[in-house]
Design brief:
single chain; mainly alpha; globular; membrane; O-antigen_ligase-rel_domated; WaaL-like
Length: 439
């Protein structure tokens, strides 16, 4: 045991795992097969955590939530066996919720380092840029985009490309702000290096803004708009004594940005194209909603409501998600091929009921709560706390219109972002006994 512990806690071992984490994140979008190799290394090298850190790791709230996630999935499966034996799986599928907790491994190896967190988030953004050039001819796609066509740069589909650009936009904007404000870990950077980094980040901002616009994903536009609009409120939550005039000025600045973006022909056309569908929805004519992009989503949610009413607390297990579409009279022909409901929150209700949805919301809550706790000991985490609120808001919003948390690229994004936020609390909680012993 002592030799295992010595190897596990050595600097070389830690660097091996850290490099694997960064390479996993960097290659996940452009080179998925290569990324899987580094993910396997990460998992295998992390398994000793449950032995070396067993006295404390099992007390961690996130690990307890993982245990509840496994239990909820088993209960929902049993419920399906009893009431829906024709569609129930022969055994429970435990990975659907459990995979959302992989960030615990990554958070452990980041060791509460701001520098490591920024590097991790940076690999996601850089990997996305590489992916835009690797998966498609970037210049041909750009030409199509400038002609008003919707493009996706061959990264799964436009929704996922837009999701990545939206996340990367938030990461880059936040990093640039911390660099200019000389916050940790950028406080000791020399002036020439700072100027170079700022120039690169500004170019990246332009790139991600362009991709976000031309992918024409309305849910990402809406999520970004809502997140940016509510960020001044987040600021007052973290800094209760903040200057109210500055908050008011920030809203004026936000309004100017929104007005400017609203003048874009691409934005106007994309927003107005579903006017007829929205009229049906607003007027309450729910039986005649056309099968447009928005219409498919709303019709699938209406169909899901019947399943949710049948088993609201425990759900009907994961197989029920596809059955919502299969058994709906509104979906015919090729539309029967949809295996998801374009809304992760509703999918969770269908599969795991209110218990499952409460678990997901508790996961989000505890992530942010952990930073509010930790920033009392580490004031340098104040702005990271604001960023966590921004990300959770953005992530919850886009998952109202797509099932990112249920798809591999979405799970990857969730875990990379969560790891960077949760590492501070996890690292601190594992150090507590050592600190007590030194006092």
């Amino acid at each position: 045991m002592n030799s295992l512990s010595a190897i596990f806690q050595s600097t070389k071992y830690r660097y091996l795992v850290l490099i694997s984490i960064y390479l996993f994140s960097l290659t996940a979008i452009p080179f998925e097969n290569v990324s899987n190799i580094f993910r396997t290394i990460l998992v295998l090298c992390s398994l000793p955590i449950f032995i070396i850190e067993k006295k404390l790791i099992f007390k961690d709230p996130m690990l307890k939530l993982l245990g509840l996630a496994l239990l909820i999935q088993i209960i929902s499966w049993v419920n399906a066996l009893v009431y829906l034996p024709d569609i129930a799986n022969s055994e429970p599928k435990l990975d659907r919720l459990a995979k959302l907790f992989s960030f615990i491994f990554i958070a452990y190896w980041l060791k509460g380092s701001l520098r490591n967190a920024y590097l991790l988030w940076g690999t996601l953004a850089i990997g996305f840029i590489i992916g835009c050039f690797v998966h498609a001819d970037f210049f041909i796609e750009t030409t199509k985009a400038m002609a008003g066509n919707r493009v996706d740069f061959s990264i799964k589909n436009a929704q996922f490309t837009s999701m990545f650009s939206g996340i990367s936009l938030l990461i880059t904007a936040f990093t640039l702000s911390q660099l200019l404000l000389k916050k940790q870990p950028f406080e000791r950077i020399s002036a020439p290096t700072k100027k170079l980094m700022a120039a690169i980040l500004i170019l990246a901002l332009v790139f991600f803004t362009f991709i976000t616009i031309v992918t024409q994903s309305r849910q990402v536009w809406l999520a970004l708009a809502f997140t940016i609009s509510i960020t001044p409120i987040f600021y007052t939550l973290v800094f209760p004594n903040s200057n109210r005039k500055r908050i008011a000025m920030s809203y004026l600045f936000i309004a100017v940005i929104f007005v400017g973006l609203s003048q874009s022909k691409i934005v106007q056309q994309r927003v107005l194209v579903e006017t007829s569908t929205l009229q049906h929805i607003v007027s309450g004519d729910l039986d005649n909603i056309p099968m447009t992009s928005i219409g498919i989503r709303v019709n699938s949610w209406i169909a899901a409501s019947d399943w949710i009413k049948e088993r609201p607390l425990l759900g009907s297990d994961s197989e029920a998600i596809a059955q919502v579409i299969q058994q709906s009279d509104k979906f015919t022909g090729s539309l029967k091929g949809f295996g998801h409901l374009h809304n992760y929150h509703i999918e969770t209700l269908v599969a795991y009921g209110l218990l499952g949805l409460l678990l997901i919301y508790t996961l989000y809550y505890w992530l942010v709560r952990s930073l509010f706790i930790e920033k009392k000991r580490q004031p340098e985490l104040n702005n990271i706390t604001i960023f966590s609120l921004m990300f959770v808001t953005f992530w919850a919003c886009i998952n109202f219109f797509e099932t990112f948390n249920g798809r591999s690229f979405g799970v990857y994004t969730h875990n990379i972002m969560f790891a960077g936020f949760y590492t501070f609390y996890l690292t601190s909680s594992l150090k507590v006994p050592v600190e007590k012993g030194n006092n």
